[in-house]
Amino acid sequence: MIKICGRGLIRMARLIKYLSKFNKQLFIGSIFKLIEAVFELIVPLVMAKIIDVGVKNKDIGYVIKMGGVMIALGILGFLCALICQYYAAKASQGFGTIIRNELFRHINKLSHSDIDKFGTPTLITRLTNDVNQLQLAVAMLVRLVTRAPFLAIGALVMAIILDIKLALIFLTVIPIIVLILYFVMSKSVPFYRVIQKKLDRVSLITRENLDGARVIRSLSKEEAELNRFEIASDDVAQTAVKVGKLEALLNPLTFMVLNAGIIAIIWFGGGRVYEGSLSQGKIIAFVNYMTQISLMLVIIANLVVIFTKAAASASRVIEVFETKTSIEEINNNTIQIHEDINQPKIEFKNVSFSYEGSEEYSIEGLSIKINKGETIGIIGGTGSGKSTIVNLIPRFYDVSTGEVLIDGINVKDYSFEQIRMQIGVVPQRAVLFTGTILENMRWRDEKATTEEINKALEIAQATEFINKLPEGLNKMINQGGKNLSGGQKQRLTIARALVGNPQILILDDSASALDYATDASLRHAIKDETKGMTVLMVSQRASTVKNADRIIVLEDGKVAGIGTHNELLDTCEVYREICLSQLSSEEVKR
Q1: Which of 33, 158, 297, 579 could form a disulfide with 542 if both were Cys (CB 3.0 to 4.6 A apart)?
Q2: Boundaries of domain holding 354
Q3: Do 312 and 354 fall into the same domain?
């Protein structure tokens, strides 16, 4: 049990730097808890005096006086406990806040592949449940880690001082209680690590169901998902019940031994009282000290559980902290860019890329030059690498081999801020944040004027539906944009990317929810209103990319063809098949 608790403290020690700001609170809280423990140790002695002097001599005045001392000790102990609780709360909540903030900051520095490795549900659990476990451990560290051992040892010492012969009962009872605690805790503690992992599973299912509620309902899979959740939840419950059954033995066994010890004290102590070598008051004091020791040992056992949970949580938190981002910012200074009309705006030089854990390249041997102001369409089948290409430009992922250049400079040489402020990215999944439409539009540029925002909304074909809203730009968006249609969300995300007039605009299949007329109007508006902007349009729709200056056709991560619509119809079989599968012969030739 000590070994288990020790491992927990060692793991938590790696987070000790976040607790250093609260050394004063830890010290003051612990000192006042020790003072409270001292008062508790004095109380049985006062009780013994009341019985041996006041009651024995029928001295009511002495009883009242010593009773007042007991009340004073109780009040002082209560005040010390309050002070300790206050500082323990400040230390634990402050520690938890710092850990949570630092963990969130670190997660935001991780690359897409790093976050993919952990998974969103477990990261949320680590930010919430695991940090809460650490907070609880810090609070118990202040309130009980110093008090419980001190009180247990102090009660034993006081008993020995009172009567060393009768104290032998303590020395017999305590090892038995320790053995009971060790047996119960050694069997139950391992289950707590299992429960933490099973809670991750429940969190994963919960998130999947909340995110995919509409899909689940559309496919009438509510019962199946409910069964899946119940199985995971029952799994946690069954493990918790096993722990509960083991821990249910703790109190009956310890109190059985405790009561046996008290009976022994009264039995053997009674003989000593009859002989005149021990007073009745000391017997009462012995019983109180026995009770204190037993309760403190039970508390120590509970501390083992708390620190075991905290150790598991600390390991999970440390695992995130120790994960170094796979995409590091080499230079955080602004690079001076010298424009050259002969220099491609974007260039891929023999680029290959594979996702972590994959043995195959998603992109292989890609070499492309894209000029400033050019509109590039990227098309191909599912899994052909379309999104992968555009994710390499803002360094969401780093290439496995080769180079990606912007204005002739390797993207790795830019600071994250400089490179990403040049690029407006509209992801496949439209993501909006809680707040007004105006607040969402200013995510890219906080100082954007209403005129700039309105222009971006007009290009994105969002002006019409916004003008119909009573609140206009002050319309509140619910979490995830749940109160907007798919097409409205996509148009707003496109407008948000256009605010600030980025040099490069990446549309990653971001018009899939738009009807063909709105899609066409959007493409024309982007072409007419964004002169000089380099636009990359990723789509599975041939109609979306056919009017681009050039089209890149991908198949299995390799370039199957590059050229205009008409050129590719003559030279690229893959592109011709895509077009003929989506468009009529007349539409293909337009």
Answers
A1: 579
A2: 346-589
A3: no
Residue 340 lies in a domain: no
Give the C-alpha separation, 93 to 131, whole Å.
Answer: 10
Q: Using CA atoms, how far apart are residues 424 and 507, in angstroms rounded to an integer?
A: 8
Cα–Cα dist 227/458, whole Å = 47
Produce one character per residue of 230-251: b if its CB has 16 or more CB atoms within 10 Å, e if not. Answer: eebbeebeebeeebeebbeebe
Nearest residue to 373 (alpha-carbon basis) of 402, 396, 344, 398: 344
**Is 581 in a helix, a strand, or coil?**
helix
pLDDT in tens, 104-148: 998 888 887 788 778 777 788 888 888 998 999 888 888 888 788
**Residue 258 and residue 401 in one domain:** no
What pLDDT, on the 0 to 100 scale, is given for residue 1? 45
Find the CATH number of the domain harbouring 76.
1.20.1560.10
For residue 455, give the amino acid letter: K
Determine the distance from the C-alpha atom of residue 388 to the mean position of all C-alpha atoms in its chain, rounded to a whole number.
Answer: 27
**294 plus 375 within the same structural domain:** no
Starting from the edge strand earliest in sequence, which strands make up the sheet with 363-370, in order? 363-370, 346-353, 401-406, 409-410
DSSP three-state, residue 408: coil
The residue whose two tokens read 């709360």 is 89
CA distance linking residue 9 with residue 134, whole number of Å: 11
Report pLDDT digits (tens) over 385-430. Answer: 888 899 899 888 888 899 999 988 888 888 888 888 888 888 888 8
Alpha-carbon span 414 to 330, nearest angstrom:
8
For residue 364, give the 3-state DSSP assignment. Answer: strand
Of 287, 321, 355, the position where a domain reaches its end is 321
291 plus 400 within the same structural domain? no
Q: Distance between CA 253 and CA 297 in Å, rounded?
A: 13
Dist CA 498 CA 505 (whole Å): 8
Give, for 376, the enclosing helix (H) or strand (E): strand 375-380
Residues in the chain with pLDDT < 50?
A: 1-5, 8
Global pTM?
0.70
**Rounded CA gap, 561 and 574, in Å?**
8
Q: Are residues 263 and 374 in the same domain?
A: no
Asked whether residue 330 is domain-assigned, the answer is: no
What residue type is 537 in one-letter code?
Answer: M
Structure tokens at 471: 């609140």
Residue 88 dihedral angles phi and psi, to the nearest 5° = -65, -40
Give the pLDDT confidence score for residue 2 in this predicted structure: 46
Q: What is the chain's alpha carbon radius of gyration, rounded to the nearest angstrom?
A: 35
Per residue in 324-372, pLDDT tens?
887 877 777 777 777 777 788 999 999 998 887 777 888 888 899 999 8
Give the tokens for residue 121: 């549900």
- 218 near 212, Cβ under 8 Å? no
Q: What is the pLDDT of residue 4?
A: 46
Which region holds residue 373: left if phi is over 0, alpha if psi is between -120 and 50, else beta? Answer: left
Residues 512, 549 share a domain: yes
Q: Distance between CA 191 and CA 243 in Å, rounded? A: 7
Number of domains the chain contains: 2
Task: Report CA dihedral (37, 41, 46, 48) to the nearest 10 degrees.
Answer: 160
pLDDT at 289: 82
CATH number for the domain including 488? 3.40.50.300
Residue 456 within a domain: yes
Q: Is residue 433 part of a domain?
A: yes
